[in-house]
Amino acid sequence: MKVGSVGLLTVAHASADISQGAIPVFLPFFIAAHHLTYTAAAAVVFAVNLVSTVAQPVFGHLSDRRPRPWLIPVSMLLVGSGVALAGVVPSYRLGLASVMVTGLGVALFHPEGAMLMNHLAGEKKATAMSFFGIGGQLGFATGPLIATAALLALGLKGMVCLLVPPAVVALLVIMRLPEVLAGYETGGKVRQVRPRGGSGDLWPAFCCVGGALLCRSVIVYGLNTFLPLFWINTLHQTKAAGGSAVAVLFAAMIVGNFLGGRSADRFGYRAVTVTGFVLLAALLPLLLLGLSPSMLMVLLVPIGMAMAAPFGPMVVLGQTYLPSRVGFASGVTLGLAFSFGGLLTPLFGWIADLHGLRAAVSVLAAVPVLCLAFALMLLSKRIHRPDGTFGDGGEPRPAGIGSGDPRGLP
């Protein structure tokens, strides 16, 4: 694993996702400045997720035909420019168009970034992809802090400050790009190591991975949206306590992401994926058992770790199941499967309006069962080749791993 380049790409992912993380903090100021309804404000978040969701598989497919790693710094500038312009444009419609530029930049970044990370990872693909995911989580965590400070100090125009982090890191990436791209083929399709015994893409297995990631995205967005409200309105805690609950959850996810990647490189991608969803399916319903707020706060730690641990392994599995379409696989597993949850969040809001927050959280607590069902299908040989290419060891052979690997890979 090229540690320095992996670290740079992780920082790049963090700086790119700062702008997305800042949008919820930006909305109250945007509402006040343009006298918006809540529906109009919600359309801002929906627009970003819609553009990102639709465009990322498309850009991933184009990356498979011809990788364009120079799009990584370009996309970072687009992401920062979108939210920066949204703070200075004179109308709601122009602001909406500006944040859609951010969604376009996100859609450009993830397929190219994930493909390059796959190349840089060497044998430690799940570990490297977990670092890549941690970068995104850190961006989402620090974005609200930077945006809040800028908005309070400068008003809505303070959103221009959000352009600084991605611009600085983009410049650093440009300076280091020749070193990072050493050995990376960009003249045509990137040559991928195919599973032994055949060259075809494994679409049934990939669909299982994609289904599990889509369901996981619903859980992440649902908890991020409704956990503070659940803490305040159902548990009757303070707003500060509600914010602390989200902070604890995301801190635990960062730890879980790292541990999941390391464990997957040692014990197998599918084993870690199934274990994580088994734990999540068992732990998430415990939020509804009437435990004390302090006990629930402690419970958020294993919930966050179990929710995050399968992320890196599943992204690598998706890339390896489609060895000739790594860009498309990255666009789905990192893009579509991440932003998809934002599109379904209004459904849980509708449930909460009709039946209360506890009902919404109850439905959300059942979603890990779907994740587990998709993950368990990955253990079935029926969705893999019948020639033994995918044996009991768990997953396809990553590049550079020979026979006798301690993880028991075929």
Report on this model:
The chain has 410 residues and is mainly alpha-helical. Helices cover 75% and strands 0% of the residues. The two termini are 21 Å apart.
List the helices and strands and how they pair.
Layout: H1 3-34, H2 38-65, H3 71-86, H4 92-120, H5 125-154, H6 164-180, H7 203-234, H8 239-267, H9 269-283, H10 293-308, H11 311-321, H12 326-355, H13 357-377
Concise structural overview:
With 410 residues, this protein is mostly helical. The chain is built from 13 helices and no strands. It has helices spanning 3-34, 38-65, 71-86, 92-120, 125-154, 164-180, 203-234, 239-267, 269-283, 293-308, 311-321, 326-355, 357-377.
Number of domains: 2
C-alpha Rg, in Å? Answer: 21 Å
Spell out the helices and strands N to C.
Answer: HHHHHHHHHHHHH
What is the CATH homologous superfamily assignment of the largest domain? MFS general substrate transporter like domains
Let me know the number of strands.
0
The main pleated sheet reads as: none
Helix content: over 70%
What is the CATH topology classification name of the largest domain?
Answer: Growth Hormone, Chain: A
How much of the sequence is in beta strands?
under 5%
User: So what's the oligomer here?
Assistant: single chain
Give the CA-CA distance, first to last residue: 21 Å
Poorly predicted regions are 187-198, 385-410
Give the overall silhouette.
Answer: globular
- Treating each run of at least 4 consecutive H or I residues as one helix, how many helices? 13
Please report the first level of CATH classification, the CATH class of the largest domain.
Mainly Alpha
CATH architecture label name of the largest domain: Up-down Bundle
The computed structural class is mainly alpha
Overall pLDDT: 82
